[in-house]
Request: fold
Amino acid sequence: MRRPLKRKRWMTFSSFLTEEDFQLVLDSSVVINVLATGYAPAILKALAVPVVVTDYVVGEIEKGTASGGAESGLLNELIADNVVRMAQLEATALQTFYGLVSGTVSVSLGDGEAATLAFAHGSNSSAIIDERKATRIAGERFGTLRLATTIDLLAHPNVCSALGPGVLGDATLRALQFARMQVREHQFEWVVALIGDENVASCASLRRLARQHRGRSQKEFAR
Reply:
């Protein structure tokens, strides 16, 4: 295990998760991000709500493991330890799933994303999903479905309290470096404060946002 980062400027960031999120359904990329932190059991237990993955997501993780990843074994440990529950789509959720995977590329989703949204919608749960296309389609088709991202999991007050800034910074950096965790623009400053400016260049998924922020800073300085 890596040593926790020493310095942290602790910033306030409001996770999208609230008491209304009584059950969380994780997409494949979110599972991979959380596993990459190295602190998956601590993070998921700290959320203090049931965490679910569909069998389609488990299947996608297994395919990744077949090409050399270790995620499937780690996910199976979480399932065996009852930290995560695996669920199957039934009846209406299965019909919703088929609707989401059908159509042209611009309006359809992969199996894991579609299953995550279909199960969350059918069970009145919250879908935790990072991909922008899936987020857009969810907003268009399921207006009341609650959505959040991996960063919202990490920024949840219970997780922040359980891990503390040093360990949380180390966990976030690992997810960025090893899983290329996606970060939204409104999450960028919180993430950078957590991992340190010196680590931004080593995170591929942060580079575009870092350029945008530098550009805005230069314009403001030039005024």
Observations:
- The mean pLDDT is 91.
